[in-house]
Amino acid sequence: MKEQHPAESPRPKYSGVQKLTAGALAHWQVLAAGVLLGTGVAGLAATHDSYCGMTDLGYAPVEVRDSLRSAADEAGFRPGVLAAQLETESHWRSGVSSHAGAQGLAQFTPDTWDRWGNGGDINDPHDSIAAQGRYLAYLKNRLKPLAHGDETRLMQLTLAGYNAGPGAVEKYKDVPPFGETQNYVRKITKLSDTKYKVTCNPEPGFRTERLSTPES
Predict the structure, then answer these.
(1) Which of 87, 89, 180, 203 is catalytic?
(2) Catalytic site includes residue 203
(3) pTM above 0.90?
(4) How far apart are CA 173 and CA 125, in angstroms?
């Protein structure tokens, strides 16, 4: 005698939309993991980029890095450009004087200091850097029409104005044909592109500089 089986219930039929929805729900964990993974990678990339964006002062003296960042905000240039300029001007020695009577870390003459020093001490590294930022901002704004929208050229014209005076730059409508000024601009540009560049892989051939003061 054959065993009797109850009649099987008919299987429900699903529409295409229902099948798609069911599939998505079934795999929600996989989808969520993918989203979280993507967000995590993006977060790591942002952290990496933020770190790299702070490396241009990696070889500057530690005690003046905050002052350099503030002065760079004032001037509208990268902090590494200001660091390269100070290394060229005074080699991080705040008590030096030039043959022309320029003094301090950023090498201001007494007359120029009277205008841009804001009553500070010309031999104080932080006061000198703050004045550097203010004077660079003035030069940049004054010489901007000669750069024709080229940011690299504007930086070089501004540095030339710092060394030779803005009148000389306006006279020649370029970096003046003075050997000292051209070498000055060339050296700062090279330093800002190597030792004080923005990078996640600082070049190991350089050393972290130390600030020299009259008391040290």
Answers:
(1) 89
(2) no
(3) no
(4) 32
